[in-house]
Structure formats: C-alpha cells, structure tokens
From TrEMBL:
<dbReference type="InterPro" id="IPR012724">
    <property type="entry name" value="DnaJ"/>
</dbReference>
<dbReference type="GO" id="GO:0006260">
    <property type="term" value="P:DNA replication"/>
</dbReference>
<feature type="binding site">
    <location>
        <position position="160"/>
    </location>
    <ligand>
        <name>Zn(2+) 2</name>
    </ligand>
</feature>
<dbReference type="InterPro" id="IPR002939">
    <property type="entry name" value="DnaJ_C"/>
</dbReference>
<dbReference type="GO" id="GO:0051082">
    <property type="term" value="F:unfolded protein binding"/>
</dbReference>
<dbReference type="GO" id="GO:0042026">
    <property type="term" value="P:protein refolding"/>
</dbReference>
<feature type="repeat" description="CXXCXGXG motif">
    <location>
        <begin position="143"/>
        <end position="150"/>
    </location>
</feature>
<dbReference type="Pfam" id="PF00684">
    <property type="entry name" value="DnaJ_CXXCXGXG"/>
</dbReference>
<dbReference type="InterPro" id="IPR036869">
    <property type="entry name" value="J_dom_sf"/>
</dbReference>
<feature type="binding site">
    <location>
        <position position="186"/>
    </location>
    <ligand>
        <name>Zn(2+) 2</name>
    </ligand>
</feature>
<dbReference type="GO" id="GO:0008270">
    <property type="term" value="F:zinc ion binding"/>
</dbReference>
<dbReference type="Pfam" id="PF00226">
    <property type="entry name" value="DnaJ"/>
</dbReference>
<dbReference type="InterPro" id="IPR008971">
    <property type="entry name" value="HSP40/DnaJ_pept-bd"/>
</dbReference>
<dbReference type="GO" id="GO:0005737">
    <property type="term" value="C:cytoplasm"/>
</dbReference>
<keyword id="KW-0863">Zinc-finger</keyword>
<feature type="repeat" description="CXXCXGXG motif">
    <location>
        <begin position="200"/>
        <end position="207"/>
    </location>
</feature>
<keyword id="KW-0862">Zinc</keyword>
Length: 381
C-alpha cells in the first residue's frame, strides 16, 4: 500500500505549493534534531522530509496522486513488477500516450536554510520589564574559508560527466509495448549538475559549517509564556551558503512566589486577621513594577472579597497599557484564644446578640473564590 504523503504533512490532496511548504516548515521546526533530540522525533523528521521531497517534485507528486509510491523499490513506486518491467506508473502512462520523461533540469546547489528554535526561561519581572540577553546558539554558518562556494582556493565546480550537467540520468527499458524512457536524479552530482573536484578542506564542499556563536536577544515588555520572538536570518545557513532561515526564541515564563498571571492581570492572596477585616487596615505588597504598594482593606471586608488596583498589572505587549492587580482577601480566624481574648469576644457577642448562626439554602448566593464568582457571573448560579 502506498504511503500517505499528504497525511504525513497534515495537508489535503489539492494543497498549493506555498501551503505545502508552510506545513513542512512548521513540522520541521517541531521535529528538527537540533530542536528535538528524541529518537522518535528524528524518525518523524525523516518521514516529513521525505514526504515534502516527494510532493514538492511535480513528477513524483503526479505518481502519488495516481496511487503510486515513488520511493518504493529504489525510487520506483511499487508497480514495477506487475507491469512487465515498467519503471513506475508514470512510465506506463508515458508508454500508452507517447512522449518521453520530462526533463526537470538541475536543482540549485545554493538553497535556503531552515529555521531554528531556542527556548528561554524568564521570570515574571523580566516578562514585565523586558530584557536583553546574550544567548549561545549552535547552527550552521557560512564557511569563512570558501565563503559558501564549497571549492578549495581558486578551483571551480565542473560539469558532471555522468549527467552532462542535466542533473538527471535517463534509462531506457524494453517492454511489451515498446521502449520506455525514465528519468532519475543523477547519483553522482545528486541532481545539481555540477561536481566539485577539489572541495573546501573546511566544509567539505557544503559551503557551511556548524559553529557556536553568541547573539543578543531583545525581549519586549509584556511577553507571556509560549510567545516567540523572531530574529530574521539568524537561523541555519542553507546548503551552498544559501540564505539563512530565521531564529525563533520561545519564552517560558517561570512561576512567581506571590503573583499569578492571567493575561495582563495579576492575582495574589492576602491573609487578613479577623479583627483587621472588621475594623479595616492597610497591607503593603511588593508589586512587580511599582515596588511597595499599599492595599487598603475596608472595614467590614468579607472572606473571599476581591480588591482591584487598576493599572497595577502587566503591560500589554504592543500598547504598553497595564492590566489590573486583584488582591483576594482571606480572613483568618484565630485557632487558639487565651482567657482574656475569650472574655473580650464573649462581651462582643453579647453586645451584638442580634447576630446568630443560621442555615442557608445551598442555592442561595454566597461569596466564594475567584473561580466561584466567575461561574456565578456566566451561569447565573
């Protein structure tokens, strides 16, 4: 059974060349060995690379659309034995309808490089203020000895003697229906049409070498977990010294000891003694961008109440406008009382004898935590 090349790339059969390339690059960034060293990911990368190589080739894609597999049997599509020695299903159609194998010409030795991905851990303060960091990246860079030419000294590439510069070789097979001509990429020059007889001693003719280098990455204020910063042309240099891909820096935001982030808003919990909640008080917190900030607890504050400080949250990524700081009040009831405290509370209770404990309906509105109040807002319960 032929392999599902479209399924490997997650695209439909009628996908355009642009969408096909976009789907491949997205998967390549996820499974590239430089990004994901897992063996399963490397195997997946080989599969999607092979699928893209097939579908980006018009002739091979035509074979796939006809139900064949151009990678089976050493480059055939798995139909060779059943049709008297035909090289592939495409060859059968050429034999019936005339015409030889269409020449695709040599492929370029200089090709664009792939994108790279770097993960960076930032704390909440760095996400709020923005930061510039020096990072070390390990990518393919332009060979400084041959400047991407791939040749040693003043030597020059030469036309491939096997394919005579066409980048492909043609073979003729006899069948019951006559002669069938098929074309395959040249095994000597790998479809380039040229060979380098005296390759560069540093890059081996590839035009690029792997190297570690340091670059500065500027992270804007307001970034969040999972966001990516793009650095154009800082990724992998392509074969033959081709243009470099992009480098993406993915932000991983670390948890804060006090504040929890929800978009541009910050949330924290404040424990307030029972007496302070009744009489009112002021609590000072060390805000992310504002330093020591006073939060006023009004007299009579109830358990689960939320006090909102407008404009004391995280900055928005593009506008710079800031979210809010939500302080969720937890009223602390003392667990142990001495005789003096007990007597004072009894006097207080006697003074307010009109307030007694009562059993309320489970369906009656009652104060709760943040998510309870959100549920009440959207469900009406």
């Amino acid at each position: 059974m032929a392999r599902d090349y479209y399924g490997l790339l997650g695209v439909d059969k009628g996908v355009s060349d642009t969408e096909l390339k976009r789907a491949y690059r997205k998967l390549a960034r996820q499974y590239h060995p430089d990004v994901n060293p897992d063996e399963a990911a490397q195997a997946k990368f080989k599969e999607i690379s092979a699928a893209y190589e097939v579908l980006s080739d018009p002739e091979k894609r035509r074979i796939v659309d006809l139900g064949g597999d151009p990678l089976e049997n050493g480059g055939g599509n798995g139909f060779g034995g059943g049709f008297g020695g035909f090289g592939g299903l495409g060859d059968v159609f050429e034999a019936f309808f005339g015409g030889g194998a269409a020449s695709r010409g040599p492929v370029g030795r200089v090709r664009p490089g792939s994108d790279s991905l770097l993960r960076m851990r930032l704390d909440l303060t760095e996400c709020a203020t923005g930061v510039t960091k020096r990072v070390t990246v390990d990518t393919a860079v332009l060979c400084d000895r041959c400047q991407g030419r791939g040749t040693n000294g003043d030597s020059q590439p030469m036309r491939c003697d096997t394919c005579h510069g066409r980048g492909e070789v043609q073979t003729v097979q006899r069948s019951l229906l006559g002669q069938v001509m098929t074309s395959r990429p040249c095994p000597t020059c790998r479809g380039v049409g040229e060979v380098i007889p005296d390759p560069c001693h540093q890059c081996g003719g590839d035009g690029r070498v792997r190297a570690r280098r340091e670059i500065s990455v500027k992270i804007p204020a307001g970034v969040g977990d999972g966001m990516r910063v793009r650095l154009a042309a800082q990724g992998e240099v392509g074969p033959g010294g081709g243009p470099a891909g992009d480098l993406y820096v993915e932000v991983h935001e670390q948890a804060h000891d006090i504040f929890a982030r929800d978009g541009d808003d910050l949330h924290c919990h404040i424990s307030v003694p029972m007496v302070d909640a009744a009489l009112g008080t002021t609590v000072t917190v060390d805000a992310i961008l504002d330093g020591a900030t006073d939060i006023t607890i009004p007299a009579g504050t109830q358990p689960g109440a939320t006090i909102v400080l407008r404009g004391h949250g995280m900055p928005q990524l593009r506008t710079g406008a800031r979210g809010d700081l939500h302080a969720h009040v937890q009223v602390v009831v003392p667990e142990r009382l001495d005789n003096h405290d007990t007597e004072l509370l009894r006097q207080f209770k006697a003074h307010r004898d009109r307030e007694t404990a009562e059993v309320r309906s489970a369906h009656a509105p009652q104060s709760g935590g943040l998510f309870s109040r959100l549920r009440e807002t959207f469900t009406g319960r």
